[in-house]
Amino acid sequence: MDAPFPTLYDNHGRPLQYLRLAVTDRCNLRCFYCMPAEGIPYLPKKELLRYEEMERLVTLLAQLGIRKVRITGGEPFVRRDLVPFMERLSAIPGIEQLNLTTNGVLTQPHVPALKAMGVGTVNLSLDTLDRQRFLQITRRDEFDRVWATYESLLEHNIAVKINAVVMEGQNIDDILPLVELTRHQPVDIRFIEEMPFNGEGNHYPTLTWTYKRIFDYLRTHYPDLQKVEDHPNSTAHHYVVPGYQGRIGIIAAFSRTFCGTCNRLRITAQGGLKTCLYDQGVLDLRALLRSDASDEQIKTSLIHTFRHRAKDGFEAERQRTPVTESMATIGG
Question: CA-to-CA distance for 41 and 25, rounded, in angstroms?
Fold first, then answer.
């Protein structure tokens, strides 16, 4: 069946079909690469988008061409009534896929509901399989609850993608154990370059574990590693070890090799529209919503913004002040 609404393109001819929607800036972990140990100043509740405001935006974006929505945070499950909200999103005409990114700490009790509403994939943030290293990285002793979520997702046949940020001196010893999860389980393990969004404004002058080094490390230990076909808009390059059930992905998040096919938008918890992970926010949707703008006025503003999208993450970064925000405030 044909899509009910036309495809929307940016000024570089890239289709815009995928929305990452942050429902909160709060998180119950304190991963050192995402935020300081003391956390970040959280926004007052009134400054966050209300669920009904988010539903309105998703409805309008679906009319413009968005087909896939991923719920992100912060940690989505620290916001109350998330499951009913997701159920309402899944019923919006034009939305064909609803997915979730979570750290897994609070997720396990909700897995049956995620399955029932048809959530397609769950990205589980998990940088290590070692409980002590988990504590060191996240500053919280929550590994057991995260692992329970992982097992429950597999039991309910929900597609799982484990996201692991590769960090020198932190979790290099976890790369091979994570790959070994793909031996007997149909899971994607995605190794991600570290990025500068740690809430302290520390830009990394050099990146030690680039996507190339990650690949070379994997190839050294798995000489028969085979490339498999990627989705046209995939951020990851995917590989398999022959005979293994799952896949391995490498995401060049800092090197930004995938910008030419990026079809993603982000809406932060406070209603900022980002057409690139590295931009500073290009449209204040909360202000539009709360100024009684009509649906047509909002859609006109969105289309105008999409026609002035940065060519890639490097251009977007050049157009902004230095990075100081936490990934928790961006929406992953």
Answer: 9
In a domain, 3, yes or no: no
Q: In what order do the strands lie in the sheet with 283-284?
A: 226-227, 236-240, 247-251, 188-193, 159-166, 121-125, 97-102, 68-72, 18-22, 264-267, 272-274, 283-284
pLDDT tens digits, one per residue of 175-233: 999 999 999 999 999 999 987 654 455 544 467 899 999 999 999 999 999 999 999 88
Instruction: Residue count of the chain, please give it.
Output: 332
Name the residue among 123, 125, 240, 124 with its Cα closest to residue 183.
Answer: 240
How many structural domains compose the chain? 1
Helix (H, G, I), strand (E, B) or coil at 136: helix
CATH of the domain at 142: 3.20.20.70
pLDDT classification of 281: cutoffs 50, 70, 90: confident
Which amino acid, one-letter code, is at 116? A
> What confidence score (pLDDT) does residue 319 get?
85
* Mean pLDDT estimate for the chain: 91
